[in-house]
Design brief:
437 residues, alpha+beta, Neuraminidase, 2 domains, 5-stranded antiparallel beta sheet, 17% helix, transferase activity
């Protein structure tokens, strides 16, 4: 009995000691030197074994079996009448890498393909709390919101990554490795681009190392930085600290800039050079004028955790409303996503595509985007589930792309872009000169 009690006592002391070492390793307090990380590695053995048995699911869609009864690839209705192209950005589950394809919407055929090799393109990851080094490779790289120029240059980046211009053979023509970019890439109408970036490290006083200080970044045709400004500083300068740093709870990503849409023509409610900004974590759309550092207009809701704002005409904008919320029990979507159209003339917010979203049951918790086509239909990317939809406002589905691999799982999208027939034809004419790719 005494031997049993003695063994129990030593075992209990050993467990407590091991727990202390694991906690030290997890918190990186380094009180016990190399023993802390070593104990943490031992404690993680079950998770490591489980991950090895399960395989790498990082790039799977968040609902990988949602479209199990649907065929992979393109399904286009016979009477769809679609024209133009889609610059399809998606993770290929069979090839275990991200691909970008220029696809004809007339029949779903691939006219050109790019295979960005992140292992070659990306230098060593920077020393930044915003970067996840384990994604810094071809197997996990995503070409987010690629842009194809009329001369055949494909402009790509990942979230929290560098900017590259690729030729038709996926070789780098130029690179911008001095800035970390994320989310949307939009043309400035003069050969350059507006892209969300960061001020890293942040210049805002008393913020943590991992604070996401979103920035508006204007770059030239080869990625050279022309202008940059902190969004956090814009809000602070305009007396909006209440939206950032309330004492109730600190957030390291209070804004989450996920779209930066430049105004290319004057209108009754905005001027050329203005910027429409989408702040997901504030459920806010803002119209900002860089020329005078002026917040022209902003509105919070009715959209919730929205993503993507587009200028529809000279008095209306459209917002991809994720309709997402979290009341402390996990993030969810209220039914489906929506496209909310805001009319600056009347101040009204309408949802003309409500039947389409309900008919297709489109819902993506985050990311996602839309584009209105010339015939009034919409292209909708359901990023989290790996689906691209073309539908009319009444719910008539014209085409669908399911990003599913041979294993039956759906994989993530990378923010596809609609291109007109003329835009796609012009780029293709340049791409045919490429050899060896």
């Amino acid at each position: 009995m005494w031997l049993v009690l003695l063994l129990f006592l030593f075992g209990l002391i050993g467990m407590i000691g091991f727990g202390v070492l694991v906690l030290d390793g997890e918190r990186e307090t380094d009180r016990f030197g190399a023993l802390g990380p070593a104990a943490l590695d031992v404690a993680e053995i079950p998770d490591t074994v489980k991950a090895l048995m399960k395989g790498d699911t990082t790039m799977q869609a968040f609902q990988p079996h949602r479209f199990g009864d649907k065929p992979a690839g393109w399904t286009i209705a016979k009477d769809a009448g679609l024209t133009g192209y889609v610059l399809l950005s998606h993770y290929d589950g069979d090839r275990r890498r991200h691909v970008v394809q220029l696809v004809s919407l007339a029949d779903g055929t691939v006219k050109h393909e790019w295979l960005p090799d992140a292992d070659t393109l990306l230098p060593a990851p920077p020393d930044s709390a915003l970067v996840e080094p384990t994604l810094w490779n071809t197997a996990h790289y995503r070409a987010i919101h690629p842009y194809l120029t009329s001369d055949g240059t494909l402009v790509i980046k990942d979230h929290q990554s560098y900017l590259f211009g690729l030729d038709g053979c996926s070789k780098a023509l130029w690179s911008q490795t001095g800035e970390l970019f994320h989310h949307s890439t939009e043309s400035d109408g003069a050969g350059g681009y507006w892209i969300p970036g960061y001020v890293d490290p942040s210049a805002v006083e008393r913020t943590t190392e991992d604070f996401n200080d979103d920035a508006l970044v204007h770059v030239g045709p080869r990625g050279e930085v022309l202008w940059k400004k902190s969004v956090t500083q814009i809000l602070l300068d305009h007396g909006m600290e209440y939206d950032l740093f309330g004492a109730g709870r600190y957030q390291d990503d209070p804004i989450h800039l996920n779209d930066l849409e430049p105004v290319l023509e004057d209108g009754p409610y905005w001027k050329k050079g203005d910027l429409f900004l989408s702040f997901r974590h504030l459920s806010m759309i803002m119209l900002y004028r860089p020329a005078t550092d002026e917040i022209v207009w902003y509105q919070q809701g009715p959209w919730l955790a929205q993503h993507d704002v587009d200028i529809l005409d000279d008095h209306r904008i459209g917002v991809f409303d994720n309709n997402a919320y979290d009341r402390g029990t996990g993030a969810r979507v209220h039914g489906t996503n929506e496209i909310v159209v805001h009319d600056f003339t009347t101040g009204a917010d309408t949802m003309p595509f409500d039947p389409a979203f309900k008919a297709t049951e489109a819902h993506t918790l985050f990311e996602g985007l839309f584009t209105l086509l010339p015939d009034g239909a919409a292209m909708i990317e359901e990023e989290n589930s790996g689906r691209l939809i073309f539908a009319r406002p009444d719910g008539t589905e014209l085409a669908e792309f399911i990003n599913k691999g041979k294993d039956g799982n759906s994989y993530r999208m990378g923010w596809s872009r609609y291109m007109s027939q003329a835009e796609g034809d012009a780029a293709l004419a340049k791409l045919t000169t490429c050899t060896g790719g």
